[in-house]
Amino acid sequence: MEDLIYFFSFQDPNIRYVAAGSVLLAISSALVGCFTFLKKKALVGDAVAHSVLPGICLAFLLSGNKNPVVLIIGAFITGWLALVLIDFITRSSKIKEDTSIGLILSVFFGIGILLLTMIQHSGNAAQTGLDSFLFGKAAALVGTDLVVFSSISLVLVVVVLLFYKEFALISFDEDFAKSIGFPVRRLELVLTTLTVLAVVTGIQAVGVVLMAAMLITPAAAARFWTDKLSVMLVIAAVFGAVSGISGAFISYTAPAMPTGPWIVLIVSMLALVSFFIAPNKGIFYKLLRQYRIKRRILNENILKLFYQLSEIDADHQRARTLTELQNKRPIRMKSLKKGLRRLHIQGYLSNRDDKWSLTEQGKIKGRRVVKLHRLWEVYLTKYLRIAPDHVHEDADNIEHILTPELERRLESLLEYPENDPHSSAIPYDPNLMNK
Amino acid sequence: MIVNVENPILEVHDLTVTYSRKPVLWGVDMTLPKGSLVGVIGPNGAGKSTLIKAIMGLIPLSSGWVELFGSPLDDVRKKVSYVPQKESVDWDFPASVRDVVVMGRYAKVGLFKRPRKADYEAADYAIAQVKMTEFANRQISQLSGGQQQRVFLARALAQNADLYFMDEPFAGVDAATEKAIIGILKQMSAQGKTVIVVHHDLQTVTKYFDWVVQLNTRLVASGPVEEVFTQELLQETYGGKLTILSDVGNLLRKQGFPTRDVT
Amino acid sequence: MDAIYIITTGSLVAIACGLLGCFLILRKMAMVGDAISHAVLPGIVLAFLISGSRDSFTMLLGAGAIGVLTTFLIEFFHKKGGLQSDASIGVTFTWLFALGVILISVYAGEVDLDQDCVLYGEIAYVPLDLWIGSNGIIYGPRSLYISGVVLVVIILFITLGYKELHLTTFDPAFASAIGISTSLWHYLLMSAVSLTTVSSFESVGAILVVALLIAPPATAYLLTANFKKMLWITVALSILTSATGYYLAVYLDGSIAGAMSTMAGLFFALAFIFSPVDGLIAKRRRQLYETSKN
User: Fold this and answer.
1) What family is this protein classified in (chain B) (predicted)?
2) CATH topology for C2-293?
3) CB hemisphere CA count around A162 (13 angstroms)
């Protein structure tokens, strides 16, 4: 707890720098990731992330020191090479894209591991720290490292904002972009360069192994909250920032811990929560919507039932018992009772001595459902040529979804038919009919 | 106009199929007679392939049922053959023509067993029927579009079924292949086998088929070609969607509405 | 003797991976294999914590079950959540792998695994971990037996289900039409991949398993257009990869698993350029021939 307060008070300039750096690079990769996500190239990011390892090792072997600029150049070169090779293999052979991604990813990483272990075994003292590039170490983000990595991140953010409109178009509809004369090839080149750069900046904090998640996960999570690209970018950036700062905190309080997995775990938790609870697209939301629809269908079915019964004995006021209702249409007792209570509260039914009857409002609603049911049956027989004995089931469902607008269109298309295919009268609202 | 038959070889009852809750086939009710050569026609996106996939149990039905030979599919699978669209498989797959055709025998071979000599003979006979004998050992990646379609037809022939469903067998094939394929189909139909073909080209309908099914989300017509292949019905089939029907369909998808009321 | 033990274990692991990989790449599921090989890590760590040892049978099963759960999760997010499939793969496995690495760091004292082992295995220590019978007889390295048994299981699975695996890979619609359950064989294959990755984990690590799953089959795919030959070539390449990888590692004094995937990549590059059927040179020649003919 003390650590938490101390860390988030940001009094220690070191903490300030580490935190700001982590946030900045998490944001920049989240922004770039949104576009790779939308272009359905999420796993290419994974391949690039793994492929920078041999570059880092080679740069170290050749230069003999850990200068961040040199390492970044090395990482950038092999990352780029991996992208080019994936594209080349897929285009010029029968090997499919997923295979070439997996192939390049694992082979490049294997070469990286070979080089890394060679460096370790050679006992070069300066190497200590190279393996922190595997799983990341945010706390090491100080001095020149911080300056270099943060400047690249800033450049990334600025370029993404500058090219916002162009990137949006090529991720959404490449052919259209081409047709209106966009330099699509060059823009894609810029975007892939940004992807490689985003990976390169992330390696210090997150590490190469899990860097892909920093590109994919914030974008995937943000997509659940919105359909607007600009909003998606903001949300992804926020998710990235939150995980970045948490990573910095963990790296500060538990220096032995690798930072990358924690950052990834946190951003993944945000994503999981989004998958479930995001409005409109979330899984819980969808279930809730299903439940509401079911409830509405039940309510309307009960009112329909009352109306049908009153059609039989021509008495709209009569109060009816549960058994009477059940005999006409078997509905599960529990749901029926619940539905009756709900309709009573809503004012569609009145209740006396365990008997239920329609209110005026309930009668209107029940009549509408019966009308829609029969209208739809007429429509199916007339326009879909379905035999009259086969239309009932479909109408049982569609009666609940027809909007007043569709209702009017149906009425005028069918010219206010008097009867349904089974010669039951279609009940129109008498007030409206007189006009 | 929907013509129904007694003792149908295929009966589709109140079939509704949805993709993400939007119906692509709505309330299809039809029967087809044994021994006929049936063309299924309709505009793009009318649900033609969906219909035969639904009949073959490859996609879930939202409502309705299907009976072949008066029984559910699982009881008569061995008498039914299905030819998918040729684009549905990867022709770079490492296999020869013979390898693919012998797959038609797999259902008869049984679990854990290998195809025997008799199965290879049946495959070779089917290959000869489609005039591909000289290509029997050719890799499938080296075939032309027409030859690929012949391979698929040979595989179906090797199944030796009584009822065939073919998804666009004439798409992207050369004229010679089209002629060869229709010749074989007519021969099969003459032997009392029933062949149901998803077809695109209206010019050839009367020449090829004796029964026509016209679809556009709903079933517009099903009947002998001379009765239902009329200007009026074609106009209805190709004259666009029913606006109310497609609006209701979109509403079902948007609201995530169930296809059947189950309370 | 050590060299032989290491190369044999490496070959057994590589063959099991390669045989399954042939099906994976033809099903366009190479990245699902990648995802599984990462995602089994938390399963391995948990099984370790519960059972206290790493080569128990329960661990194979437990961690294998997590592999299958991964494919299930990927499909769940894709179908129920509407997440596009590549992102669904990416989110699921990075999350599980991160969890695994954290568990290792948190329980560092109790779990005999470290981050390095997770990434590139400890095949060099294979000869040290011997299986000693109750009467003191030394039967040889334990990993050798484990990978041997797993390989036998995989070979049995592929021979018995050859027809079904083959057909569901080439033409799933036709397979279901003749009554072969595509989802059953999909999950059986995923279980086999999980089992293999779990058992290979210790020897070659999470990421290099992927190299063995993908590189030899992809190389074989370029060398033949006959599926059975592709399986045999994969077997040969796997052994070759293991042997040359070992000697490369000894020569350079680096990780054996890293060297093995380097060699696997090298063989792929050779096939990609020189394959008589699909190589760059053969293709270029054919093009020249075609143009000169016209």
Assistant:
1) Belongs to the ABC transporter superfamily.
2) ABC transporter involved in vitamin B12 uptake, BtuC (1.10.3470)
3) 10
